[in-house]
Design a protein that fits this description.
This protein is of the alpha+beta class and 258 residues long. The protein has helices at 3-17, 36-47, 88-95, 108-129, 167-185, 219-234, 243-251; strands spanning 20-21, 53-60, 64-71, 74-81, 136-140, 143-147, 150-151, 154-155, 187-188, 197-199, 203-205, 212-213. α3 (88-95) crosses α4 and α4 (108-129) crosses α5 (167-185). The longest helix has 22 residues, at 108-129. The radius of gyration is 19 Å and the shape is globular.
Length: 258
């Protein structure tokens, strides 16, 4: 079946669900994204009135695609983890050792469902602790629905592409987020960099599927990596704390060796 036919078939399926496609030219079907499992999850979310409009792609990552959408006129974001092509082995490294997911089966589908639930849980914990992240709204199978971080249907830019008027202030905000995650949410982002921070009225942390709890076997190693990434980005923009100094200040330990 041609790509055009697939798109037409998918458009009809969405219309039957009661979903409107906001911009057909921007919304393109990817065969590795919209499989039967995703259709079922999407149908359930539409049936429960979580999604009324689907728009164009916001981002395409290593494991997931994010789409702009709306719920009764309010902007939201839909993150769809790709069951067929997501990096199964990499996900397992972060799931293993997380006591919350000790009983997850080892097959690809169940692992990705657990990963979606994990990101929902991590965002909820971060939000409750006061860290600016997308509001997690609902999840089903491999789909996560979140608040939209941006304006006029456009997401805020990644930190690497943003114009930062006061780098020192933003650096202090971000190191404060890392500390709050660790002390209040008892989480480590575990993949923090200028690629996983959106910058608008303030910085927002995103992509928290891999985030781990403080008792994870590799928690300190992940925390140090986050610190080094933030210091690397800001070191030529403002004064930064030393890696070990910041690690010690956040953890209360006397050594930076994980």
């Amino acid at each position: 079946m041609s790509q055009e036919k697939k798109e037409e078939r998918f458009d009809r399926a969405l219309e039957e669900m009661g979903v409107r496609i906001k911009d057909a030219n921007q919304f393109k079907v990817r065969e590795d994204v919209f499989d039967e499992v995703t259709y079922l999850a999407l149908y359930k979310l539409v049936h429960k009135k979580w999604i009324s409009v689907i728009g164009g792609s916001i981002s395409t990552g290593k494991e997931a695609n994010v789409f702009y959408a709306e719920r009764d006129g309010a902007p939201i974001a839909i993150k769809i983890y790709r069951i067929r092509t997501a990096n199964f082995n990499t996900m397992g490294d972060y799931i293993r050792g997380d006591r919350r997911f000790a009983n997850v089966k080892k097959n690809r589908k169940d692992l990705i469902f657990a990963w979606t639930k994990k990101e929902y849980s991590n965002l909820a914990r971060a939000k409750e602790a006061g860290v600016p992240v997308p509001d997690p709204l609902v999840w089903d199978r491999n789909i996560l629905v979140m608040s939209f971080i941006g304006e006029d249907e456009r997401p805020y830019p990644q930190l690497r592409n943003a114009e930062i008027e006061d780098p020192a202030a933003v650096y202090q905000e971000l190191t404060g987020y890392i500390e709050t995650l660790y002390t209040k949410a008892e989480l480590i982002h575990a993949d923090l960099s200028e690629f996983n921070i959106l910058y608008g009225d303030k910085p927002y942390l995103i992509d928290m599927g891999q985030s781990v709890t403080r008792d994870h076997p590799r928690a300190f190693a992940f925390l140090m990596r986050d610190i080094k990434n933030i210091n690397r980005f800001f070191k030529n923009r403002c004064t930064v704390q030393g890696d070990e100094e910041l690690f010690n200040a956040i953890t209360g330990l006397s050594t930076a060796e994980p």
